[in-house]
Design goal:
There is one protein chain. By secondary structure, the chain is α+β, with helices and mostly antiparallel strands. It has five domains: about 100 residues, Zinc finger, PARP-type (first zn-finger domain of poly(adp-ribose) polymerase-1); about 40 residues; about 90 residues, no CATH class; about 80 residues, no CATH class; about 90 residues, DNA polymerase, domain 1, CATH 1.10.150.110. Helix content is about 45%, strand content about 10%. It is built from 16 helices and eleven strands. The chain has a four-stranded mixed beta sheet with strand order 3-2-1-4. Helix 12 crosses helix 13. It comes from Nitzschia inconspicua. InterPro entries: HHH_MUS81 (IPR010996), Znf_PARP (IPR001510). One of its GO terms (molecular function) is zinc ion binding. Keywords: Metal-binding, Zinc.
């Protein structure tokens, strides 16, 4: 039996989008909200909305009639502004749910390739295209009829590209398909159809890479084959998962990051090692020179440091060494602007006074990073967030909230960190640009958004006015 809960509600803003048709749910229209069970590593429950006429009973409730679902499972989500929705809306809701159920008749729960009334996933379209090809191949030439879609064989370019890959793999056992995913470091769970789709998608586009925001593992969800999601990243220092709400299209110009090749046979030891090296480089987990081998600035500074002679046994020698390091890294390493750079370098140098000058230089890299790399990384992150949010103008605000959330998570304060994560989820779906003039309106009245309280709105307003907010600057200073 399904553990999800379902409620009938009235849309308050017109900003929510239907989980099935992806179209906005009009303000004051009825919608069904599905709330998932709260996970152990989350401080909140996930939920999503449907038009009533798009909602289909889940497989866990397949034995339940529509009338019983409305009576026993669908709760009344009416509030003070709408009043109770039942029993007045009961007949209307049952009729709309029956309309949704009719759309999937005749195909064992899945709409046929030519059924425009049903919601078709990319996998369904591929399967329909494969069947159409098989029928076409069996028909005598004289009896072949012109297809209703003009001969395009039930799909777009991506569907047609997936068809031969699907035909190559669909007869394999689930464990064989999981082996392919295992070789490519992809998640294994899911039904056979879902596992098969991940193999087909991977062979066509490459294996899923890492989140551009937190460098966590990206994944597909079985109920959303059009988007790639980040489930967060495990932080070894705190022993917790840092939550992340990054989402990007699975394919297209703004698609999620991919890595190649996608292995169809078990990779060699050298190939496995190359994958691990690539992973470590993306996540910043490499050690020593390997971490900087592709960074020309870093290699030049390391070579210069290797030729340095320093004496840290007396005050004069320490000052000279600090000046020498500062002269080398100034303008290249991202030293903090709000503190004495010489003092910062001197402290770091003395905390590593048993190391060689080259090792001290690497410690400076590790703590502060590079000016060029920081700018490029920021540009990449902004582009990634712009691709995933409803209004690209809100990307910088989302990134600032993400940064602040990360600091709280590192401190072990998951409640505060989750507040920002939940706000990010709301801002990602917000089609309106947040400005200093409208920021506070999202925390109150008819325009209030979920997960946006007064304190969050004040930070949004401050960011729009100054490009930052005081709590973020406070955390940056504490974690510098």
């Amino acid at each position: 039996m399904s553990e999800n809960t379902y409620s009938l509600q009235v849309a308050k803003t017109g900003r929510a989008k239907c989980r099935v048709c992806k179209e906005p749910i009009d303000k004051d229209a009825l919608k069904i909200v599905t709330e998932l069970p709260q996970r152990e590593n989350q401080d909140y429950a996930m939920s999503y909305s449907h038009h009533v006429h798009c909602f289909k009973l889940p497989r866990g409730l397949a034995a339940v009639s529509i009338e019983d679902f409305v009576e026993d499972y669908l709760t009344d989500g009416g509030d003070d502004s709408t009043g109770p929705l039942f029993p007045d809306k009961k007949v209307e809701v049952i009729a709309l749910l029956e309309e949704a159920a009719v759309k999937k008749k005749g195909s064992k729960g899945k709409p046929k390739g030519g059924d425009a009334g049903g919601e078709q996933t990319i996998l369904m379209r591929v399967q329909a295209a494969v069947k159409a090809q098989e029928v076409e191949e069996k028909e005598p030439p004289k009896k072949k009829v012109k297809k209703e879609n003009g001969g395009k064989n039930d799909g777009d370019d991506e569907v047609q590209a997936m068809v031969p890959i699907y035909k190559k793999h669909h007869k394999k056992k689930t464990e064989e398909l999981k082996d392919i995913l295992r070789w490519n470091k992809q998640l294994l769970k899911g039904t056979k159809d879902f596992v098969l789709f991940k193999v087909v998608d991977g062979e066509l586009h490459g294996r899923l890479g890492f989140c551009p925001l937190c460098q966590g593992n990206l994944k597909l969800n079985e109920d959303d084959l059009e988007n790639v999601h980040c489930g967060g990243r495990y932080d070894e220092d705190t022993g917790t998962i840092q939550l992340c709400s990054f989402t990007a299209p699975r394919a297209g110009k703004k698609a999620a990051p991919r890595l190649v090749p996608f292995f169809l046979e078990e990779p060699s030891e050298e190939e496995k090692e190359a994958m691990e090296t690539e992973r470590a480089k993306i996540r910043g987990e490499q050690e020593g020179d390997l971490k900087y081998e592709d960074n020309q600035t870093a290699m030049e500074l390391l070579n210069q440091a290797a030729g340095m002679k320093i004496d840290l046994q007396n005050k004069d020698g320490i000052q000279k060494a600090a000046n020498a390091f500062l002269d080398l890294v100034k303008g290249k390493v991202d030293l903090p602007e709000n503190r004495n750079s010489k003092m910062e370098v001197g402290r770091l140098m003395m905390s590593n006074n048993d190391k060689t000058p080259k090792e001290i230089m690497m410690a400076i890299f590790d703590k502060y990073g590079f000016v060029e790399a920081k700018a490029e990384n920021a540009k990449t992150k902004v582009a990634a967030v712009q691709a995933s949010c409803a209004n690209p103008a809100n990307a910088a605000l989302i990134l600032a909230f993400r940064e602040c959330s990360g600091y709280y998570m590192k401190e072990g304060n998951r409640n505060a960190g989750s507040t920002y994560v939940k706000a990010i989820q709301t801002l990602t779906d917000l089609e309106e640009e947040v400005t200093a003039e409208n920021a506070m309106s999202f925390s109150k009245g008819k325009t209030k958004l979920p997960n946006i309280g007064k304190g969050t709105a004040e930070k949004m307003k401050e960011f729009c006015e100054t490009g930052t907010f005081s709590k973020l600057e406070e955390k940056r200073a504490a974690h510098a």
